[in-house]
Amino acid sequence: MTGNITEITDFDAPELDVYARLTENQLLNRADPKKGMFIAESPKVIERALNAGCVPVSCLVEKRQIENETEEVMEVLKKCSQVPVYTAEFEVLTKLTGFALTRGMLCAMYRPRLATMEEICRGARRIAVLEEVVNPTNVGAIFRSAAALNMDAVILTAGCSNPLYRRAIRVSMGTVFQIPWTILDKNIAWPQEGMQALKAAGFRTAAFALRNDSVAIDDPKLASEEKLAILLGTEGDGLVSATMAECDYTVKIPMSHGVDSLNVAAASAVAFWELGKKK
């Protein structure tokens, strides 16, 4: 494949705008969501996005990767044969923040249609619900744990960091493309309407919080729930009191050595491991 490859020698070339100069909000394109894009980094992550049905817009590849016909890169390019492929020397691409972490390849893609809450809940047994988790690193780490530890889906409130932000995708190792997820519409009042929708879908709800009136994480009642939603709150403050009041269970992870809490991403891994076990 050589016909659609264009070499870029100037970092200021307009072809690099989507990779180098558009902000996350500009990529999101709230004014016209159908044209919203995201950037996937590294061949493995790009392939996971392609396998999930994401549509590529263009690729940016280090020139050496094409010259050496690096296997994982060439496999991705075969699947992107209908879109422009831009290539440049490493010296040009290192001006891109974090390029050394991309394994020599980036891909701009259109954002997929956001699933509805009903679609997310249908057929799911265990789901994670994130309330106002604003750090993209935490969101990415939670997705990676959710995919690895038997969560069927993730629901995010409107104030959460978007799972398709570059850092979230990178930290998740592309698992944001492997597990169903959605962001609650701002018109759905949280927690009242959102929690009602979860219960209408048959889910019991477990709030992870630092409260003494809680059940143990290994309580058999939790494991026996046919459908369970695991709620995790924002960094620092955790879940709001109104959300906890709506939940069927409050769960506290036991601590030692005077540690009062875990980071939300670490807490999610503990919760998913214990409550995501197959019956």
From TrEMBL:
Protein origin, superkingdom: Bacteria
Gene Ontology terms: biological process: methylation
tRNA/rRNA methyltransferase SpoU type domain mapped to chain residues: 127-272
Alphabetized InterPro entries for the sequence: Alpha/beta_knot_MTases, Ribosomal_eL30-like_sf, rRNA_Methyltransferase, SpoU_MeTrfase, tRNA_m1G_MTases_N
Keywords on record: Methyltransferase, Transferase
Single GO molecular function: methyltransferase activity
Keyword Methyltransferase on entry: yes
CDD domains the record matches: SpoU-like_rRNA-MTase (cd18095)
Full protein name: RNA methyltransferase
Organism listed in the record: Muricoprocola aceti
